[in-house]
Amino acid sequence: MKFHDEIMRRRTFAIISHPDAGKTTLTEKFLLFGGAIQVAGAVKSNKIKKSATSDFMEIERQRGISVATSVMSFEYNGILINLLDTPGHKDFAEDTYRTLTAVDSVILVVDSVNGVEDQTRRLMEVCRMRDTPVIVFINKMDRDGKNRFDLLEEIEKELNIQLHPMTWPINSGKEFKGVYNLHDKNLRLFTASTKADDENAIAINDINDAVLEDKLGTADATILREDVELVDGVNGELNVADYLAAKVSPVFFGSAINNFGVNEMLDTFIRIAPTPQSRETTEREVDVEEPKLSGFVFKIHANLDPKHRDRIAFLRVCSGKFERNKYFHHVRLNKDVRFSNPYSFMARDKSIIEDAYAGDVVGLFDTGNFKIGDTLTEGENFFFTGIPSFSPRYLKK
């Protein structure tokens, strides 16, 4: 029963986007909500005034971009979230492609000003190939961007996905007033440069309630009612099974830098996102609830710590229980190995762990034994399929 309980409370996902869409900022807001950090970094004009938590390498701090996948684990409302913040820049796309093999779902960030961009298209192609469930966050609603209906149409057409709005924006840019939650039937008002919290939410049982005029003005209240009637009429309630089958993508509107619209998405994510899934190997399907450990290496990172010449292999646990100092079978090398200092991550910070379960990502100190796609088991010989192989990335100090 413990295996089942541990698996059910885990969610492992990646955040993907085109560069500068606000992906790293959104990552930090998740960490703030989870209590993993107290102060967010500020990324402005490609110059980091306070280093973003998930940008843990020197090149990232200098250039203001994420170039290597950061692994972050935190708890939110009793759910253990393993978040992989991926590079957005095309020069580091191979790292993102590998990461997408290690997650069970994805959050795609789209810039409301620029809409769908090249890297967004490429990343979504990988998600569609793997039938990965996707939630879309349309960011930067506080900036003058594209018409909301035009933007949704563009995303559906360009990315070949069917969207299902979960929140709906009231205007954009300087006129942005907030979002209406189509699922919970409440209005959350936006105030620039302030942190969104529950005090901003106004419950509305009937969208024809006169409170809309009081909060939005007659014109915007009328437009919102017309929009909601249209959107609800077309989409209705979200079919979670369709989302899990990657047939439909829930959509949220907000402004990550202002912490607005993020909480609604995070609450929905932990409610509907898939738990760790069973996976195919060269021999058979490995059931996620099997008691024996299996896992694969999806990333190898050299010089993670500039003070030491280290090399860390990132292992996605697929079944069973990973335990510190226990011997496991390295399939390719046909030998048993054990790890005295396995790590979990909070961006650059590492902490030694005693155990890990399906869905978790474990950092293993590597002296050169691992390659991308290597498998650890408790005796069986197989490899997990569908993992692209690239050389390890070494970064100069």
What can you see in these coordinates?
This protein has 397 residues and is α+β, with helices and mostly antiparallel strands. The chain has 2 domains: 2-272, P-loop containing nucleotide triphosphate hydrolases (Rossmann fold, 3-Layer(aba) Sandwich), CATH 3.40.50.300; 279-377, Rossmann fold, CATH 3.40.50.300. The protein is 24% helix and 29% strand. It contains 10 helices and 25 strands. The chain has helices at residues 2-8, 23-33, 58-63, 93-99, 118-129, 148-159, 211-216, 218-235, 240-244, 262-272; strands at residues 10-17, 42-44, 47-50, 70-76, 79-85, 105-111, 134-139, 163-165, 167-170, 178-181, 186-189, 201-203, 249-253, 279-280, 285-286, 294-302, 311-319, 321-323, 328-330, 335-337, 343-346, 349-352, 355-357, 361-365, 375-377. The strands form 7 sheets. Strands 4-5-1-6-7-13-8 form a 7-stranded mixed sheet, sandwiched between helices. The protein has a 6-stranded antiparallel sheet with strand order 20-19-25-16-17-24. It is elongated, with a radius of gyration of 21 Å. The termini are far apart. Residues 40-51, 53-69 and 390-397 have low confidence and may be disordered.
